[in-house]
Amino acid sequence: MSQKEQIVSLKETNKVTQTINQHEIPQPQPLIEPRKNHKPDTGIAWVMAIFGMMATFATWGVNSAYGVLLNYYLTNNTFPEATKYDYALIGGLTVCLAGLLAPVGALLYKVFGFKIVCIIGIISQTAGWICASFATKIWQLYLTQGVLVGLSFSLIYIPATLVVPTWFVKWKAASMSICVSGTGLGGLVFSLSVNKVIDETGDHRWAMRMVCFVGLVIAIGCALVMRPRNHIQPPLKQSLQKELFMKNFKETFDIKIFKYWGVCLISLWFTLALVGYTLMLFTISSYATSVGLSSSQGSALTAIMNAAQLTGRPIMGLTADKIGRSNFTLVCSLLISILLFSFWINATDYGTLIGFVITVGLMIGIGTSLASPLASDVLHPHMEKLPAAWSAINIVCSFFVLVTEVIALALVQENSNKPYLHTQIFAGTCFFVGFLLILLLRERLVRKTIFEQVGKISDGSGEDEEITIEVCDCLLESTVVAYLRRMVHPMKI
User: Fold this and answer.
1) How many other C-beta atoms are found inside a 10 Å radius of the C-beta of residue 244?
2) By the 8 A CB rule, do 285 and 411 touch?
3) Nearest to 339 by CA among 284, 376, 378
4) Which of 325, 365, 413, 428 is 20 to 30 A distant from 269 in Cα terms?
5) What are φ and ψ of residue 137, in 5° steps?
6) Is residue 78 domain-shared with residue 128, that is, in the same domain?
């Protein structure tokens, strides 16, 4: 056989072998079809942010209307055996469980995926509102509107806030601000609609059912549409294996996260910001009636403030991404404190109060908008620790928000000319102390950034850096003056 014939024969043999390999021998199929490689910060990412807003609307947005229900409970003595502090604790219990069980929601999300966890949350929320509408004893309201609804928040809202950041790199703060703006949208819609249904029906029961049905439809839409970017959910049997389950557990519940002082500072700041926010949200309507306005005007003020939040939260996120998240948080915390001390205390007519709620409403949601992005700045580049940090922040906060509404009621002096003065001072103090905490946080972030720049300059990769090695050395000195300079050093951070 010639050399040419041998080559032709070898080619034919290879073709036959390939045919056998491709068609006659079954090829193993992957257990899970890989998802399309979606790019971050694109159109579908913003769709996820909008559905994240809807998840917030169906949970925290609904809770924003609790002030209307609280006013109805207190005015009509709905449950004779209950005190005003019972009603305040029920509202606080919902918020407390939403934060306290946030790590559980995050862990279940990792094990079962978004859709299953969200559906469980929908069932809990629906059962909570429907059963609450039939409650005749105060303990029944604790279990339904307090426990079941609070549990649902951790199973719907928390997984949604873990899905949205996976779709963004450049616009993380903006996307999260859009997500949490559902609180303002829900407050606007439900504070007016709940009040209207109560007026039409004469009691709170159908108002609760209306809230339930609206939240049910919207949450189902979120469960069907939302999913993490480029994520392959492992089979349930694999997720429940001891090794993988313990890995997810340790990533979610890691007490060592408090070794990061930045996380501790954010936890305290977030707690104070949420306490101040809650005091504002549930007090403004009652304050309006105390200065001679009607209950409908008080409800309108709450709705206007929620509408301002709807606009303000996305703007805050975009601005924070542009000028630096800690910079923006610092300025906002101080401005809110000034507004509460100087504007709210002196606002006694309807027009002035409208101006106040619009101005403060644009910024009052700073805590929920920027806590997670700030935590990511503190932990960078160790982003795998972010779930544990976010869980820790929520757990710390939950114990305080449980009694926030009780504090709000206890601070009211019924027989005083200014019955809400102590509440106003307390809320303003919360944000001022928060401002001081962010100053401390900013110092740590500036120091961290300067160390990184020194490293770049030393290895020759930092030629374009605006700061020189001499300035770095000056800022990194271990003196009180250098510490104070780091707090206010002009830098996007």
Assistant:
1) 14
2) no
3) 284
4) 413
5) -125, 150
6) yes
Q: How far apart are CA 117 and CA 433, in angstroms?
A: 37
Which residues span the domain enclosing 143? 34-253
Q: Which long-range contacts (CB under 8 A, 24 or more apart) does 204-208 make?
A: 204/69, 204/72, 204/73, 204/78, 204/133, 205/133, 205/134, 206/133, 207/69, 208/69, 208/129, 208/130, 208/132, 208/133, 208/145
Same domain assignment for residues 418 and 343: yes
* 459 within some domain: yes
Contacts of 154 (CB under 8 A, 6+ apart): 97, 98, 99, 100, 101, 102, 104, 105, 121
Q: Each residue of 385-428: pLDDT tens digit? A: 888 888 889 899 988 988 888 888 889 888 888 899 999 999 99
Distances (CA, A) of 458 to 366, 402, 409, 452, 476: 38, 50, 58, 10, 15
- Name the residue among 391, 399, 362 with its Cα closest to residue 277: 362
- Token pair 């305080």 is found at 400
The pLDDT > 90 percentage for the chain reads: 36
- Supply the pTM of this predicted model: 0.81
Scanning the structure block, which residue is given the tokens 């997810």?
248
For residue 203, name the pLDDT band (cuts at 50, 70, 90).
confident
DSSP annotation of 144? I
| Calculated CA dihedral for residues 112, 243, 231, 226, nearest 10 degrees | 20
In residues, how long is the chain? 493
Q: Is 455 helix (H, G, I), strand (E, B) or coil?
A: helix
